[in-house]
Amino acid sequence: MADRTPAVEAAIEAELRLLAPEVRASPELLGQLLHPEFTEFGTSGTHWDRASIIKALTESTDREGRPIMTSRMRGVQLAEDIVHLTFDTDSNGRTSHRSSLWRLYEGEWLLWFHQGTPFSADGPSEA
């Protein structure tokens, strides 16, 4: 069940900032949104930590490209300091299901864990 608590709203706002090309191109701005213990299982199957994802994103971000499009974003506040978001992305025709865990850390909502799973937009529709 999706919530629209202030915590969920803050996590959604932070997630959308994280997807912005100008944020993805800046180590400083990215670092402001990632928890010190951040980990990710990327759509490629790669396991990323905080330092490696900052390096990879800032070196590969197309600053002139189309923004990453999101759809079906939902959030649930699992605990006072944890929000789980799920959503889909389309990045230049590459579609992925996304799952993010955001943790309240020193007064800020920071991305603690993220996983992306590619899917075909031509495949069967999901419930």
Give a quick rundown of the structure:
By secondary structure, this protein is α+β, with helices and mostly antiparallel strands. Helix content is 28%, strand content 43%.
Question: What do these coordinates show?
Answer:
Strands 2-1-6-5-4-3 form a six-stranded mixed β-sheet. It is an alpha+beta fold. The chain has four helices and six strands; from the N terminus they run αααββαββββ. Helix content is 28%, strand content 43%. A hairpin with a 2-residue loop joins strand 3 (69-79) and strand 4 (82-91).
Average pLDDT value?
Answer: 89
The chain-level structural class is alpha+beta
Approximately how much helix is present in the residues?
A: 25-40%
**Distinct helical segment count:** 4
Which band does the percent of strand residues land in? Answer: 35-45%
Total number of beta strands: 6
Distance between the termini: 14 Å
Overall spatial form? globular
Order of helices and strands: HHHEEHEEEE
Low-confidence stretches: none
Trace the largest sheet across and list its strands: 2-1-6-5-4-3
Topology overview:
Blueprint: H1 6-19, H2 21-24, H3 27-33, E1 34-41, E2 47-49, H4 50-60, E3 69-79, E4 82-91, E5 94-105, E6 108-118
Question: Any descriptors?
Answer:
6 strands; globular; 127 residues; 28% helix; alpha+beta; 6-stranded mixed β-sheet
